[in-house]
Amino acid sequence: MPHHVVIEPDSQPSRPSGIAVYPGTFDPVTNGHVDIVKRSLRMFDQVIVALAVNTGKAPLFTLKERVALVEQCFTANSNVIVDTTEGLIVDYAVRQKACAIVRGLRAVSDFDYE
Prior knowledge:
The protein has helices at about 30-40, 65-75, 90-95, 110-114, and strands spanning about 20-25, 45-50, 80-85, 100. The relative contact order is 0.23. By secondary structure, the protein is of the alpha/beta class. GO terms for molecular function: ATP binding; pantetheine-phosphate adenylyltransferase activity.
């Protein structure tokens, strides 16, 4: 059974070291995405925001524009890396030596899907 960690809004979880990958299309990046990255930084040394290329979607913004938008959100934080990836996220996470993949949930059905 997978292990899931839920970060409550005002909680201060113990802070393991390591790298976490937060994948998504970020089309566009939202305040919710930014909040998830900030919460993740309370748990991990570094968060890689991995913009996934999904050929099944017609994006509103180009990949280059999405990268720039996400980078603008975290210019003051050197612990956030913005990158792009294609293929399986788990393969990307292994290549980055990540210890966790961060996911946000919009609804209970998202949890079931993940």
